[in-house]
């Protein structure tokens, strides 16, 4: 029995709530950063993940395989989108459910950029405690907010919208935990603000969602089941005021950056498809723009 299994069997669940998912994602960023050929360097990731994050990530290796490639591909792709939008004049980044993301500390970004992180109070307290003494590369602020509090988030969006000319919204790793209705309600709330120009999301097909629900049953056990994998694909968001501008397959991205095993590289040679996926296990990163 592994150390992680012992901890779980002794009554201490490894994944206790949705905030714990931020720990294992930070582990994947740390592992990538420690490679000689790292695609990005996040010197804070290992500290943010901590020992608990490493235990969680190790326990989630299906069949003993390293499952970091989708998270590395997602991180790299979102980095690329943010950088491109900053070059086009974006003056604010709003990271909803920011978790333990450290982009304001590691990316090459303008010092005058407004970067706003929104997450649950306990997670932000944990993050700020670890990062005390570190200096971000731009004007960073954190907002303690449960995004399920609709009136509070609407007020926050109004306040931020009034301060920006061209804002990028990021919901990396968030939407999968919401229902279709909750995702569209969030989209409509964002679309109300004229300065919210771009929305960066990650998305799973119904087929991938089903696979993840099976492989990550620990999330359901922790009360945070995966729910969102729309059969419409990126076109789902047209119903709440957004249209797909760029759609990037996670598998194709991982192949492009050289993070796939031989068997997965063969799968990546299949023709690209960015629309409806049905039972096909497809995941992607999308940049949405206002309708």
Topology (SSEs and partners):
Elements lengths: L2 H7 L11 H13 L11 H15 L9 H19 L4 E5 L6 H4 L7 E6 L1 H11 L7 E6 L5 H14 L3 E5 L8 H12 L4 E9 L1 H10 L1 H5 L20 E8 H7 L5 H7 L14 E8 L1
Parallel strand pairs: 1-2, 1-4, 2-3, 4-5
Antiparallel strand pairs: 5-7, 6-7
What's this, in brief?
The chain is α/β, with parallel strands linked by helices and 291 residues long. It has twelve helices and seven strands.
What does this structure look like?
With 291 residues, the chain is an alpha/beta fold. The protein folds into 2 domains: 3-64, no CATH class; 69-290, Vaccinia Virus protein VP39 (Rossmann fold). The protein has 12 helices and 7 strands. The protein has a 7-stranded mixed β-sheet with strand order 3-2-1-4-5-7-6. The longest helix has 19 residues, at 69-87. The chain is globular and about 50 Å long. It starts with a helix and ends with a strand.
Quickly give the structural class: alpha/beta
Distance between the termini: 53 Å
> CATH homologous superfamily of the largest domain, by name?
Vaccinia Virus protein VP39
> Which residue ranges are poorly predicted, with pLDDT under 50 across at least 5 consecutive positions?
1-11
Residues in β-strands, percent: 15-25%
Number of β-strand runs: 7
CATH architect. name of the largest domain: 3-Layer(aba) Sandwich
Average of the residue pLDDT scores: 90
Strand order of the main beta sheet, please?
Answer: 3-2-1-4-5-7-6
Order of helices and strands: HHHHEHEHEHEHEHHEHHE
Global geometry: globular
Outline the biggest β-sheet.
7 strands, mixed
Number of domains: 2
Write down the Rg.
18 Å
CATH-assigned fold name of the largest domain: Rossmann fold
Helical percentage: 40-55%
């Amino acid at each position: 029995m592994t150390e992680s299994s012992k901890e779980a069997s002794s009554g201490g669940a490894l994944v206790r709530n949705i905030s714990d998912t931020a720990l294992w994602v930070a582990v994947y960023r740390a592992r990538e950063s420690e490679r000689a050929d790292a695609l990005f360097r996040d010197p804070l990731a290992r500290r943010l993940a901590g020992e608990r994050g490493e235990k969680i990530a190790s326990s989630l290796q299906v069949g003993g395989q390293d499952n970091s490639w989708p998270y590395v591909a997602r991180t790299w792709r979102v980095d690329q989108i943010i950088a491109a939008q900053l070059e086009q004049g974006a003056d604010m980044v709003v990271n909803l459910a920011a978790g333990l993301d450290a982009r304001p500390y590691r990316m090459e970004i303008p010092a005058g950029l407004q970067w706003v992180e929104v997450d649950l109070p306990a997670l932000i307290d944990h993050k700020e405690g670890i990062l005390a003494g570190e200096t971000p590369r731009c004007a960073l602020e954190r907002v303690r907010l449960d995004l399920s509090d609709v009136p509070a988030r609407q007020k926050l969006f109004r306040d931020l919208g009034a301060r920006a000319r061209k804002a990028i919204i990021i919901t990396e790793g968030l939407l999968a935990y919401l229902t279709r209705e909750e995702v569209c309600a969030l989209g409509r709330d964002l679309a109300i603000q004229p300065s919210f120009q771009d929305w960066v999301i990650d998305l799973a097909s119904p087929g991938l969602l089903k696979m993840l629900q099976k492989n990550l049953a620990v999330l359901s056990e922790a009360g945070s089941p995966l729910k969102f994998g729309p059969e419409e694909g990126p076109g789902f968001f047209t119903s709440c005021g957004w249209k797909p501008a760029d759609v990037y397959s996670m598998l194709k991205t991982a192949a492009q950056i050289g993070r796939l095993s031989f068997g997965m590289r063969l799968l990546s040679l299949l023709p690209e498809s960015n629309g409806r996926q049905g039972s096909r296990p497809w995941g992607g990163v999308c940049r949405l723009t206002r309708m």
